[in-house]
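Need residues for this backbone.
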């Protein structure tokens, strides 16, 4: 069943212009890579520290006032999820490096929010970063950088601002879901990446519905406004592809890691991530081709309409050429012009004009030019 579409393009889609490309300021050139300096856009004023500590039979959740309070969880044989909302505070990052014995390079990467998705293996941890899409009820898409640091008993997650994207994971932990409560930090890492990639698929599919709807809109709209919509979608897709490609490389590299921090039981889950990110990449490529085809349809439609106009004007001109000749001849100021003073000359001329016009129209129709 074909969807009913409004005639106005601005009623079909409302898009928000996003920051399309990563930037680097001149002041950052020459800074040592291990120096803890925030490189990005500050999105939250107060840093929020949250902890969920759990195993199969135990669960505890709280908000911390400082990093040092997390030390009490290190003495337990449980899984600790330490979430930090806000990555701009250098003092907190230094405390985290000290508390978890992390290389400053790790926290420097966390504070570099414009970096591309990557995975790095250190002596006592694995660092993962990925761009995280979120779609709000107003159809706006926001991207933030998510950094994950995996250790033997703790998973540290760094978000640019507080969000509810991982609330389903927290609910699974609270409701004592067997798989996540019985898993280790590597399964928690998989669960978070799985939600991010699912959001890629969700946002891309939402954009894809609008792209597919454009094909129907092209049949009723030939104004240039639709070109702006197509170009807007192309920018959206290019931005997704810019993030999905390195995210795909990161997921495949992560699945190849032979680390003691990964259990064999999670291998199948990381293969699932590979399939999903591959699907997301293929979807963006497919929709990009659809946009290209729609752009061609628009140009073909406009060209066809222009050809119809030119054909009409050509036929109109051809018909009036002999009529203009007749009128021009009998409009000259000569006294000795044949039939000039004949009583019925005017009506004869009108008849000849009518016969010529009618004959040419019938001829054009017979040739299927009309």
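Answer:
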């Amino acid at each position: 069943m074909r969807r009913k579409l409004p005639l106005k393009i601005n009623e079909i889609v409302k898009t928000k212009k996003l920051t399309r490309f990563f930037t680097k300021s001149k002041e950052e050139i020459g800074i040592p890579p291990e120096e803890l300096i925030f490189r990005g856009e500050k999105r939250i004023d107060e840093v929020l520290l949250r902890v969920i500590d759990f195993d199969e039979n135990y669960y505890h959740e709280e908000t911390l006032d400082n990093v040092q309070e997390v030390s009490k969880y290190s003495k337990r044989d449980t899984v600790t999820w330490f979430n930090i909302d806000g990555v701009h505070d250098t003092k907190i990052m230094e405390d985290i490096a000290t508390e978890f014995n992390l290389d400053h390079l790790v926290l420097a990467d966390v504070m570099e929010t414009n970096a591309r998705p990557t995975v790095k293996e250190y002596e006592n941890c694995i660092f993962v970063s990925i761009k995280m899409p979120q779609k709000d009820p107003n159809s706006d898409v926001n991207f933030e950088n998510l950094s994950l640091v995996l250790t033997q008993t703790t998973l540290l997650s760094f978000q640019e601002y507080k969000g509810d994207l991982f609330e389903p994971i927290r609910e699974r932990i609270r409701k004592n879901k067997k798989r996540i409560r019985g898993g280790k930090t590597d399964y928690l890492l998989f669960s978070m990446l799985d939600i991010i990639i699912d959001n890629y698929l969700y946002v891309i599919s939402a954009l894809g519905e609008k792209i597919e709807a454009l094909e129907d809109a092209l049949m009723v709209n030939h104004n240039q406004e639709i070109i702006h919509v197509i170009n807007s979608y192309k920018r959206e897709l290019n931005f997704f592809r810019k993030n999905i490609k390195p995210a795909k490389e990161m997921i495949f590299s992560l699945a190849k890691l032979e680390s003691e921090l990964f259990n064999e039981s999670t291998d199948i889950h990381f293969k699932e991530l590979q399939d999903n990110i591959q699907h997301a990449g293929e979807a963006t490529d497919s929709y990009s081709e659809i946009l290209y085809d729609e752009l061609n349809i628009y140009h073909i439609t406009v060209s066809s309409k222009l050809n119809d106009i030119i054909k009409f004007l050509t036929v109109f001109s051809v018909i009036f050429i002999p009529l203009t000749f007749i009128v021009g001849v009998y409009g000259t100021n000569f006294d000795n012009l044949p039939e000039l003073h004949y009583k019925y000359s005017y009506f004869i001329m009108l008849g000849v004009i009518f016969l010529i016009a009618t004959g040419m129209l019938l001829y054009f129709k017979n040739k299927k030019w009309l």
